[in-house]
Amino acid sequence: MTTYQLVAIAVAVGVTLLFCGLPVMIAFGRRHPDRRTIAKLSPLALLSFALWFALILWAATDRKDDSIVARYIDRIQKRNLGPWIVGGLVFIGLAGTAASLYL
């Protein structure tokens, strides 16, 4: 491998880690009440852009008095749908990646 290839790989890994860690940095910077959960879900964002986008939104909106967001979060927590939603987002991301590689 040439030096340029090694530098390109290092830059790609760095950008990927920054991309994956951005929701965590936002959550910890804003002292989000669910920042540890966001940190646990963040590695899965490598598989799904939709999950990464959802984590960014979740990390940026930490207000508990937002009635619309609170209503949906309460509904998800009561029905224990969190793992299913995350799994669905990962599946959609993988399906989209597979479709783009196939085409």
UniProtKB/TrEMBL annotation:
TM regions (residue ranges): 6-29, 41-61, 81-102
Key words, A-Z: Membrane, Transmembrane, Transmembrane helix
Highest taxon listed in the record's lineage: Bacteria
Keyword field contains Membrane: yes
Protein name as annotated: Uncharacterized protein
Organism: Aurantiacibacter aquimixticola
High-level lineage: Bacteria, Pseudomonadati, Pseudomonadota, Alphaproteobacteria, Sphingomonadales
